[in-house]
Design a protein that fits this description.
Length: about 300
């Protein structure tokens, strides 16, 4: 992989959530090519290469969790003992509504979990604290999704289910599977996309990213720092970052970026590069050991609504 591959992934978007509806044009080679100044055929060839290498496993659709009556949040836990950390992950995996676990080198691990109410979240956090031994986890991010104003119909859910792990398949195939006309499927799909009822992203396997290491940098900025500092950070890593966001807690910095390096030694050089950006007080790194999604319960919930809504 190289910087163009990463820029293509960055333009498409990697995380299936956001405050606003997703602009699905970002998935089209013509749009990506125009944004990056390359031909659409070049984008198609790069995507095909990443798919054949197994880095892009498939293109997945996530429903807006609000249609399931859910919110989701991620917390950073610290488990200094390696054996206890492995055991904690094993015990966490069966938790109902678990979305992701990000396992970092060292003591840190991130757990992304869904919940219906703040009380349910509190109960799950207590359980996670028992498993990890960390009684004071730090909020890392919120899985924000747009507010929804209407319920989805059974046909809407059938359309979403048909696209769940084949999100770039033709709507003609979806129409056959959903037992509806192509015109109806297209109209409903377009409406759900406009309303923020779905997010489509490439599902990637970091272990298949030949020659690169994925990691995060947490930036702590000086008090009163303006947006210009964030822009300078983005410019400093324009050839290396995949996505960025603002953490839920300033205890984890004011700005977070997922990046790639060609070696572990380069990570420290990139961390020091951030220290030179005016307005940055401190930079910390988190290197991925593993990144696992837990989505069977999402599939089951979608299937139930496709049959009964």
């Amino acid at each position: 992989m190289d910087s163009l591959d990463v820029k293509i992934i960055r333009t498409m978007g990697l995380r299936p959530y956001g405050h606003s509806p997703q602009a699905l044009d970002h998935l089209k080679p013509s749009f990506i090519g125009a944004q990056l100044g390359v031909e659409p055929e070049t984008v198609k060839a790069r995507l095909l290469r990443m798919e054949e290498a197994g880095f892009i496993r498939f293109y997945q659709l996530y429903p807006n969790f609000r249609h399931l009556g859910l919110l989701a949040s991620a917390y950073l836990f610290r488990v200094p003992d390696e054996d206890r950390k492995s055991e904690a992950i094993r015990r966490i995996e069966p938790i109902d509504g678990l979305v992701e676990i990000h396992n970092f080198l060292g003591a840190e691990m991130c757990v992304d979990v869904s919940y219906r109410t703040p009380i349910e979240l509190s109960k799950k956090l207590r359980l996670l604290s028992d498993f990890t031994g960390d009684a004071e986890p730090t909020p890392l991010y919120e899985r924000h999704m747009p507010e929804v104003e209407r319920s989805l119909s059974r046909l809407d859910w059938r359309i979403l289910k048909a696209l769940r792990y084949h999100a770039r398949r033709s709507l003609l195939e979806v129409a056959d599977e959903a037992h509806a006309s192509v015109r109806t499927v297209r109209r409903r799909f377009d409406r759900m996309a406009r309303e923020g009822s779905l997010f489509i992203v490439p599902a990637v396997d970091a272990a298949k990213a030949a020659g690169i290491v994925l990691y995060e940098l947490l930036f702590y900025t000086d008090p009163g720092t303006e947006r210009s500092t964030m822009n300078r950070i983005l410019e400093a890593y324009a050839d290396r970052y995949i996505y960025h966001y603002v953490p839920s807690s300033q205890a984890l910095g004011n700005f977070d970026m997922l990046l790639y390096a060609e070696s572990t030694g380069e990570i420290e050089a990139m961390r020091l590069r951030g220290r030179d950006v005016p307005g940055v007080a401190k930079v910390a790194s988190l290197v991925f050991r593993g990144w696992t999604e837990y989505t069977d319960w999402i599939d089951a919930a979608m299937g139930e609504r496709a049959l009964s809504s």
